[in-house]
Amino acid sequence: MRIIHVNGVPEGSMGRAEISIPFIDASKINTGKVWFYAEISEENQKTSNVIFKGKLKGSVNDGIFKSTLNLKNVKLWHFDDPNLYKINVVMYEGKTAKDELSTVFGFRSIKVENNRYILNGEPVRLIGMEWTAGENMEMGLAQTKENIDKGLTLMKNANCVFARCHWQQSDYFFDWCDRHGILVMEEVPLWGWETPLNDTLLPVAMRHLDEMIDAHYNHPSIIIWGLGNELDSHKETNIKGLDAMEKHARNLDPSRIVAYISNAVQWKGLEVPDASPRYDMIMYNEYNTTWYGNNLDSIPVALDRIHDMYPDKPVTISEWGICEPRFTGGDERRATEMAEQIKIYSSKDYVAGAVYFCLNDYRTHMGEDSLHKYPVRVHGICDINLNKKDSYDVMKEISSPLVISDVIVEGNQVSMTIECRDAIPSYTVRNYYILADDTRIDIRKMSPGQKINIDFTTSAFDLVIYRPTGFEVLRIGIK
Predict the structure, then answer these.
(1) What is the DSSP letter of 172?
(2) Which residue range(s) make up the domain with 435?
(3) Whether 440 and 344 share a structural domain
(4) Is 442 left (phi over 0), alpha (psi -120 to 50) or beta?
(5) pTM of the complete model beyond 0.85
(6) How many domains does the chain have?
(7) Cα–Cα 20 to 30 A to 342, which of 169, 299, 351, 412?
(8) pLDDT of residue 365
(9) Measured between alpha carbons, how far is 208 from 330 in angstroms, rounded to an integer?
(10) Are both 235 and 296 inside the same structural domain?
């Protein structure tokens, strides 16, 4: 067996596990004698129940064994409830065990519908940020597990539930996202206006898709395969190449979203329409206040122009932010503008999500900052050593699914209003809770737009709201 691919499909209270096992050398497999025994168990859950144990029914075609299991009472994967399962498969020839493999997967569905991402049947508007590996001074792109842990923990504690990666990441990165709950867009690293999708680069891009999807197919955190970033996407040869890539990606994996990221989709009056709206979701790199030479007032105009041209496709803001020192104003401007921009994006119902650029400053040959002996782009809410800037706290606040208001404190009696945000972000919260010293207050399930009042007694000076996974949502001083 070369690998095990599992597509976990939710079906009400049940789940369908679509299993594919390609062979290293199918010519050496005696299909008349080969059979497979599998065991599926809960992986990272409070229990370790075995939900299937037995022989897999299926057949071998074109060198791949395929089997489908219908399973009862499966727990779905969600960024606030990242339930995983482990499948172990033993291949037998007659009575002799010939090979054994295992992998981890989850039951999760994703699609785009009615201007929203639909996660496990629930409409959501997502917020997150770009993962820009390469900041580590000693390792560079060869990141350590400790460095990945630190960066992703910073993202999750800033209420990031959606990450974009310009290029492929390690299995360790995706395993972290699987286990802690971050949705991910993983991309083929095609970038730049001068990059042509010609007969030299297109086969390379196809190979990238082959290897990326084959290696990372089982990770439920991955919801989007990205085709490239900021090409000349009004050029017919590039559009033809992107169309071929999209078709190939869907043939390899029809269960996920496919998208291309554009910085030219807002252009009007061109003979050839932009490539991004040809796929599941328009991905728009929104730099109107910086690279595009405009101001905040130009953003709703640009967004409405996109929607007018392509009314049947929702938009995700795939990048926004401030690159220093190319643009002035520093972190104060970064914090101020991000708060205003998310309000603008939220006001447009056709905007389904937003990904901030980026977590941290990073080394790059494109860097404009020369303070160090290497060029750096000062673009993050953390510095190059992953120390938080002031804008980190602003990002955390605007990314919170909950808003606290009307806090009244009289002695040890506390009263407050909690609202589930109906903007960007927007999703149902379940099993969130408040800690105030040793006092725990459970927050009941809340839908976007819903408000509740909570009264409790505490002598604490501050309180913290947590996700069910233990990550911070908000920290509030009350005395």
Answers:
(1) H
(2) 402-477
(3) no
(4) beta
(5) yes
(6) 3
(7) 169
(8) 61
(9) 37
(10) yes
